[in-house]
Amino acid sequence: MAKHKKLGLGVVGAGMAAKPHAQALDALRDHIEVRGVWRRDRAALEDFCRSYDFPPAKSLEALLADSEVDALLVLTPPNARQPIVEAAARAGKHILMEKPVERTTEAAEAIVAACEDAGVTLGIIFQHRFRAASRALTEKVASGELGTLAAAHLVVPWWRPQQGYYDKAGRGTFAQDGGGVLITQAIHSLDLMLSLTGPVRAVTALAATTGLHQMETEDFVAGGLEFANGAVGALMATTANYPGGAESLTLNFSRASATLTGGNLTLSWFDGGVETVGEASNSGGGADPMAFPFDWHMAQIADFADAVQDGRQPVSTGRTALAVHRLIDALIRSGREGRRVTV
């Protein structure tokens, strides 16, 4: 991180998704001061704050009224975010928020517009962009040395159990989550893909719920992709692949093929050379959705803090997140209607 005074941060929400954020904030204490954490369940809030030595906030309003709070980290389920974000934007607080932006693209667009109108920075957590391997590939793509993109292949072969996951109230519903495997799990890999390939122009997809789950939304999606730059691609995403495996993204360029598998990158050059970059880590693809290191969250939170203090946009913004929302909409619509859909 660049050298600044400490960023004052309020945290809203302290459920399952909060653990890697809390670990990251604990490691960033020299740069970020957690001014307070707020959650409706007071007993759970106090347990969480004791675990990480963070101060509990009296209310959301108290956080927004604190002149030392520069930004909010919003970790609530997507169905609870819009009023929180709108109140924070009115109070002039910058916002870093868990994915997705909201349950529908229309609601996501309203959140992005509210932040832009208020002149506050909106960052969206897509920590897969901050893996060392992802960053290395981003630099290679930006340099142009890999050549022209011809094809992309994305596989997200994850597993989530019925008992203990989808049996929990709200899981896999449109009312709470906004959808199934695409918006809740594969959205990370889809966002990373788009950051490397550019936009998708059209899709042809199949979306379904397998017999392994009883849920309102999809747990399996497969589809063909047509990119705006002329490249083609394919994807498969599921939470019905027991016991779950690492996601894989392969990009075929005119000079090399690049494969990201979990946190590892392999570059296979057409001249026979091979390069590898990576780290041994889990990705949360199995029954425990939080089985991954907090380093990626730490890097993204640090980027957001620097962006706020430097007056620039963070790597992942509300505006960039709208691209993945629109891609997910097109995939679901194509699967439902059985036809090619433009994005």
Automatic annotation (TrEMBL):
Identify the residues that the record assigns to the GFO/IDH/MocA-like oxidoreductase domain, covering every copy.
135-257
* Pfam entry (one): GFO_IDH_MocA_C3
Annotated ranges, domain Gfo/Idh/MocA-like oxidoreductase N-terminal: 9-124
Q: Which InterPro entries match?
A: Gfo/Idh/MocA-like_OxRdtase_N, Gfo/Idh/MocA_Oxidoreductase, GFO_IDH_MocA-like_dom, NAD(P)-bd_dom_sf
Give GO terms: molecular function aspect only.
nucleotide binding
Q: Specify the superkingdom.
A: Bacteria
Q: Which SUPFAM superfamilies match?
A: Glyceraldehyde-3-phosphate dehydrogenase-like, C-terminal domain (SSF55347), NAD(P)-binding Rossmann-fold domains (SSF51735)
Q: Which PANTHER family match?
A: D-GLUCOSIDE 3-DEHYDROGENASE (PTHR43249:SF1), UDP-N-ACETYL-2-AMINO-2-DEOXY-D-GLUCURONATE OXIDASE (PTHR43249)
Task: Report what the protein is called.
Answer: Predicted dehydrogenase
What organism is recorded for this protein? Devosia crocina
